[in-house]
Write a structure and sequence with these properties.
Methylamine Dehydrogenase, Chain H, nine-stranded mixed beta sheet, four-stranded antiparallel beta sheet, 13 strands
């Protein structure tokens, strides 16, 4: 993946066709907001607000993008957005519904870190989910392929 395809806060990342750009904007000392600008229409829409840090990457066809959000030392999450509608898919929630180990990390007192790592193709994202529970002590890191065509596959 090239540096132009994925970037961290603060950043401007153009879509593969160059018609749209995702822009992190600083809100205060701790928080950023992410905006999607259409360079043809000059329309700008807020995607999310309140992230301390994050990474973003466009799908190869520019129809989707993912955002990794870090809010605290015990929580990271990843979202996939449809570029046209800004409909958001919460990867932590969707993968937890599919996998019992991941579900355990979403419980109160547990720590869960969901990170979209890369686009495998135009509709599939490789995701790393790691976490641990304090009582009883348990931890792991699991990789998944998340397909926008409604499948989740554990790859290790």
């Amino acid at each position: 993946m090239t540096a132009a395809a994925q970037s961290s806060v603060p950043a401007r990342v153009a879509s593969p066709d160059g018609r749209r750009v995702l822009v992190w904007q600083k809100q205060d000392d701790y928080d950023y907001s992410l905006h999607l600008s259409d360079l043809d229409t000059q329309e700008t829409r807020e995607v999310l607000r309140g992230s301390q840090t994050g990474t973003i990457a466009w799908s190869p066809d520019g129809a989707w993008f993912f955002v990794n959000v870090h809010k605290s030392s015990d929580w990271d999450n990843a979202y996939i957005y449809n570029t046209a509608t800004l409909h958001r898919l919460d990867l932590a929630r969707l993968i937890a519904a599919h996998d019992a180990t991941v579900r355990r990390y979403r419980a109160v007192g547990s720590h869960m870190y969901t990170v979209a790592e890369k686009w495998v193709d135009t509709r599939t994202v490789q995701v790393d989910v790691s976490g641990h529970t304090d009582s009883p002590a348990h931890g792991s890191s699991i990789k998944f392929l998340f397909s926008l065509l409604s499948s989740i596959t554990k790859i290790r």
